[in-house]
Structure formats: structure tokens, C-alpha cells
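Minutes, project check-in
Item: structure for the 285-residue chain
Input as provided by the requester:
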Amino acid sequence: MVAEPIHALTYFAPESHRAFEAAGLRGFWRGYFAGRAAPLGAVDANVVVATFFGFQPEFVRRAVPGIWATITPARAIDARLEGAGAALRRIAGLTVSGETTRIAVERLREAIERTSVAGRPLFAANADLDWPGDPVGDLWHAVTLVREHRGDGHVNALSVAALDACEAHALRIADDGIPVASIQPYRGWSADDWAEATQRLRVRELIDDGGTTTPRGRQLRTRIEADTDRLSAVLVDRIPEPELVIEALTTIAAAIAAARVIPYPNPVGVPDAFASAVRSEESDE
């Protein structure tokens, strides 16, 4: 949770937008796909569809592999680090290069380097990169590795649950009671795609005719989240002094929420726990 908004600066911070545009990429999704896929190399669309999981294949093909004619993976990696680092320095100031954060990054690195990459393609690709070698860059790289490790585990949990990408979104929307428009268009799924996925969930008795999860559907969703947490714990449980790490990352994540850099809801699904807290504090003033 606390790593996610720090990582997500690469998608939403103006510094990140400028860095990708300077590298020749126009538009949100070109920067998103290039920056996130770059550690894998100049891959084709199917590799991105498989590893990112949640996107309609033709939506991915609008950007991939065409982006590699504009930017090399190495340049995309440089651009994402440049943008995220600049945003972190602006938003969190001295905190991101302070002693507490430095120790937290060291503890994260210890855990990351002791964690197997088997079955974790995005985690593995990012783990194969050199550490940037400066406090802010190392912080962003560390939280990105934690984020992608958890994401790979979540994809594994969804696959075990025999859910395809659109079904996974439809089940989540039904269970959380949030608007379909908060995710469907941002993953490229058409209304027909969504209706067909929803019908498949009805056949499995995971969603009822009113569009609400059944007890069986809620049980499956609970199991998926529990499996994701369990798989994530393979890395998280290796972190020395976890309380120190959580405190350091929470301070930075809260500063990002207060800066209102990340919109909620957003097209990449970053949770809004910190943003909700900021809104609550402001309403009490």
C-alpha cells in the first residue's frame, strides 16, 4: 500500500510527463507502456498483455511494439527514473534523501536481493537493472520492485482462480460496488467485452442477475486477495526492521497524497487510502 503511490509518480507527476515527452513519447499510455515494459526489453504486445494482465490486447497493440520505433528500452528506463526522481524531490524534499529513508531503502534492498525471481517476470526484469546509485533513485527503484513483485503475485492468484483479465475487473467492480467507468475504458474493454465477461461470471455463480457478487463470488475475491498477500509476503517478510520501513514510506506516500499528484479514481488502480485521509483532514479544518 505505501509503496504504490511512490511508484505511481512515474505515471502521474508532471515531471514524469515531461521526461517521457522529451524522449519523444506523447500521451499517457505511450509513456505508461514504454516505462513499465522497458525492463523487459523491446517486447511485442503479447508479452505486455501477459505480464500486465489487465488490458484488452488491441488496446495494448495501439502502443506496443510501435513505441520501440520512438524510444529504446534503455532510454525509457532513464526517462522514468528522471521524472520520478524529480517529482520525489519536489514533493517530499529532504525526506527522500534523509537518513531514515536511506536506512529504509537499505532494508528493502536486503529483502529484494534475497527474494527469488522465479515466476515473477516484471519483478525479475526490474531486479536485473542496476541500482541507480543515488538516494532518491534507489528509493524509487526499491518501491518499484516491491510493487512489481506484488503485482506478479496478484496475476498468479487471478490465474489460479481461473479468471481472465476482463472477468477479474468485472468481479472487482461488482464486489466493491464502484462504477464500471472507473476501470473499463482505461483497460480498453468494450461494452460487449464487459457484458460477456459478466455473463461468464453469472454462469459460474459469482455474480447475480443484479450485478452484485454472490456469497461464492465474495469468497473467491477474498481468497484472491489473501493469496496475493501471501505471495507478497515472500518478499515483505524478509524486510529487516519493517516498522522503520513502513514509517519512512508512509511519510513520503502521505506527502504525495497531500500534493494531489495522483487522481482518484485513476486509470492504473492506485488505492486512495492516503488521499481519503487528506480529504478528511481538510474537511475538519
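Outcome recorded: The CA atoms of residues 13 and 261 lie 6 Å apart.
No further action items on this chain.
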